[in-house]
Design a protein that fits this description.
With 171 residues, the chain is an alpha/beta fold. It folds into two domains: 112 residues, Hexapeptide repeat proteins (UDP N-Acetylglucosamine Acyltransferase, domain 1), CATH 2.160.10; 32 residues, no CATH class. It has three helices and 19 strands. The chain has a seven-stranded mixed sheet, with helices on one face. A five-stranded parallel sheet has the order 2-7-10-13-16, with no helix packed on it. A five-stranded parallel sheet has the order 3-8-11-14-17, with no helix packed on it. Strand 18 and strand 19 form a beta hairpin. The protein is globular. The protein starts with 5 loop residues before the first strand and ends in a 10-residue tail after the last helix.
Length: 171
């Protein structure tokens, strides 16, 4: 694990296999939404590049997660798959083994469909993921973004509030 990387198991657990590289400023954060547990599970020989974000997902062996890529809650990156620079694997998506998600593209679904930014089908695909429910336990209509984001910030605020009395332990 290189400088500035964050492993946060507060919402669930983080499990890292053997011979895994975690680059600078990568964030691996286990999450939970209501009763749904989202651990971060990383198998052996995975390369996680700098500035990546893995939230409550699974990465199978010998996968490569490139700089600035993001993998969201409930997603699985198959063995030997590549999530290239600044690509996104959306919540609940299942990437098959050896799949290459090109730079800046978005993978959604099970089985995964890969979309380029600006693809006219992308908004509907994202809507169908139900991300606010999966990630935060929030049920709000896709069209009611203001209500959805109010609820999301309330959920996260309660999670952070639980740490008001935390004690900082000196190194």
């Amino acid at each position: 694990m290189l400088s500035g990387a964050v492993l946060d198991s507060e919402g669930s657990r983080v499990e890292i296999g053997e011979c895994v590289i975690i680059g600078e400023h990568a964030v691996l954060r286990a999450t939970a939404a209501g009763d749904e547990d989202h651990p971060v599970l990383v198998d052996d020989h995975v390369f996680i590049s700098p500035h990546t974000t893995l939230l409550g997902c699974a990465v199978q062996s010998a996968a490569y997660i490139a700089t600035g890529a993001t993998v969201l809650q409930g997603a699985t990156v198959g063995a030997g798959a590549v999530v290239a620079v600044s690509a996104l694997v959306h919540g609940g998506t299942v990437l098959p083994p050896e799949l290459f998600v090109a730079p800046g593209n978005i993978a959604i679904g099970d089985p995964a469909t890969v979309y380029a930014p600006g693809d006219p089908q992308l908004p509907q695909a994202i809507k169908e993921v139900g991300f606010a429910r999966r990630a935060f336990g929030v049920e709000a209509a896709w069209e009611d973004r203001e209500s959805r984001y109010r609820q999301v910030t309330e959920v996260r605020s309660r999670e952070f509030e639980a740490h008001l009395e935390d004690e900082v332990i000196p190194e």
